[in-house]
Amino acid sequence: MNTKSLKVLEYYKIKEKIKAYTHTTAGKDIIDNLEPYTNVYEVKEHLQETNEALLLLSRKGSAPFEGIYDVRSAIIRASKEASLMPMQLIRIAQMLRCARLFQNYVGNKTDELSSRVLEDICIGIVPIKKLEDEIFMAIISDEEISDRASSLLFSLRKSLKDKNASVKDKVTSLVRTYARYLQESLYTIRGDRYVIPVKIEHKGSVPGIVHDQSSSGATLFIEPMSLVNLNNEIKEIMLKEKAEVERILAELSYKIYENINIVSNNANIVWELDFIFAKAGYALEINAIIPKVNEDGVIDITEARHPLIDPKVVVPSNIYLGGEFTSLVITGPNTGGKTVTLKTVGLIQLMAMSGFLIPAREGSMVSFFDEIFADIGDEQSIEQSLSTFSSHMTNIVNIIAKADIKSLALFDELGAGTDPTEGAALAVSILENLRSRGTKVVATTHYSELKGYALKTSGVENASVEFNVDTLSPTYRLIIGVPGKSNAFEISKRLGLPDYIIKSARENISKETLEFEELVQSLQEKSIKVERDARESEALKLEASKLKDKYQEKLYKLENIRENAMYEAQREAKRLIKNAKEESDVILKNMRELEKLGYSSEARQKLEEERLKIKNKLDSIEIHVEKNNETLGEKVKNVKQGEEVYLPSLNQKVIVISKPDKKGEVQVQAGIMKINVKVEDLRVSKLSAEDKKKAKIKKREMKLNLSNVSTSVDLRGMDSEEAIFTVDKYLDEACLGGLKEVTIIHGKGTGVLRKSITDMLKRHGHVKAYRLGNYGEGGSGVTVAEIK
């Protein structure tokens, strides 16, 4: 992307705004180096990651960046096996903790919140909590090592504390003894040794070593001889303590060196997350949304707002281009908002192509362009002796040399700065040349000739910025489809210009021109209403369509639930009857055993009557159940291959894949399972053939909708059997959805799940090739499969 356009469209100001939301210098550096991405896949992925971060911030609150610092210099130092300072070590530990917490922050799903891209990024994080805990246990703050860092350090500090207590008692006693020779009755420390302030005239009265002298020269700081040994012992312990601290720091630094690749990788991911969540923080501030992205040059932004204008005063605009027309000519008075509209289009395009969410309404669409050109503003150059016209023309020459069908060109006051007749002719010629190439163009102008050009040329559309004549102020609203009216007479009249001058001016203008201006005004008024009604109608139509699909799906589910519940009830009733029969047979058997003990024939007859009553009652219940069962679904009479039927025992619909055999059994397909069942156990599906066809078409349409098919599937936490079933189903959907490459996330673990998936992919019909993930894709924790 050319830097001139980035500067003119104020892209760098947006980056500065986003930098304010970063937590580290590393995150700021990523933003500094950022430019619009060069392919549509990257644009969509980075927009998705920003949107996922925005949803996480909205639902889970702040990201876990507490205590994070830029530790790149410390990591470089550790990679050279150098010893680190306490501050560097504790900041590396804080970075490692941040990386580990991010896995939970992104991974813990709530309300079916999907964070596919962020999960793919965080899958590369390798927690090393043991090293993290060791550093936090050993180092208390940026400059303090904990007593618990090692047993030797604890022992040395305890000894030092005891020795200091002893020397304090001793020196306090000496202060009292030599009180008359001292400047003050106190002791102090010079060079880590306890000393007392002796008057210079009494230096011979206090035997010891002179360590320092006061600035006046009246006092000598003397270490009494009786303190020398104690001070020596303290100094020796302090040296041992210092050596032990250095050893601890060196040991921790070496552990970081041993894990330098993991530490460095985790840090890079944290910097990337800092960058992503900074984009999300800015999106939250400007109430931004994720746009749809296409490669066809179609722009359709609803209620677009310039992000650098105060949200309280900015006026949203509906901007569309690239469908019925590829060039848009905006006319209107000065200070009416033409240039702001131009910059809004260009800046929103640049933001979207850089992975930033855009300030617009849901459903807005942007396009991917290889290049965006902008000729905006007065760029006179004294050094180059260029006039306003020459400056613009130099820029336009560069645009014409490079623009193509994958370009967007923005022109402010095209052809201005020279003779109006020649300028208008040049402007028309430039627009026509770019239109013929397929370049998408938005241009502002004052020339009436361009209004006429747009009216009579296919693929070119007029637009205007609305102006309120009553208040003599622009409304900043963009109206597409109607050229702008100058309103010069109305404005002049309201400002006090005499009527006779305005009348004379009107007479100097041809009747056709005046009629044209009146027609423009009439069209403008009608267009405003039509545009508003059309937008509202489209929004209502879309909402109605969504509601219809939603309730149709609910109805379908309710019918299935009702049917399944009734089949389940019938099955339960049969089970109870069977159990009751078995129980009654056991009772009767026991009765017969009792008969052998001496019951009369009359008693036997009564028992048999009771048995028949139980049997008849159970049979009548079973008949009733069968009748109810028939009302729910009749038995299949003629089984056909490929027919969809209901199997009550599995409580689901199955497909018949074989003809009945001698045993009266058929083979059916239930998901990925193939089982043999009796024909008499099958029931006719309740749905009619037409309903089935509609459901099948709807299901296929849903599968073929690429936006409904994720580019990855997560198997973590599944066993091998469940994972194979899930992947098989997912590969079918991916193939129908037209995906060329998918990612299967199985984690690293023991490798059992990865082996099972690999074995399956070797023989799967949809898979052309497969490989383990590369760096940034998840490494050995994922398998990337190429679909045929």
What does this protein look like?
The protein has 788 residues and is an alpha/beta fold. It has 5 domains: 153 residues, MutS, DNA mismatch repair protein, Chain A, domain 3 (Orthogonal Bundle); 103 residues, MutS, DNA mismatch repair protein, Chain A, domain 3 (Orthogonal Bundle), CATH 1.10.1420.10; 194 residues, Rossmann fold (3-Layer(aba) Sandwich); 52 residues, SH3 type barrels (Roll); 96 residues, Ribosomal Protein S8, Chain: A, domain 1. The chain has 22 helices and 23 strands. The strands form 6 sheets. It has a 6-stranded mixed beta sheet with strand order 10-11-12-8-13-14, sandwiched between helices. The protein has a 5-stranded antiparallel beta sheet with strand order 18-17-16-15-19, with no helix packed on it. α4 packs across α11, α6 crosses α8 and α6 crosses α11. The longest helix has 85 residues.
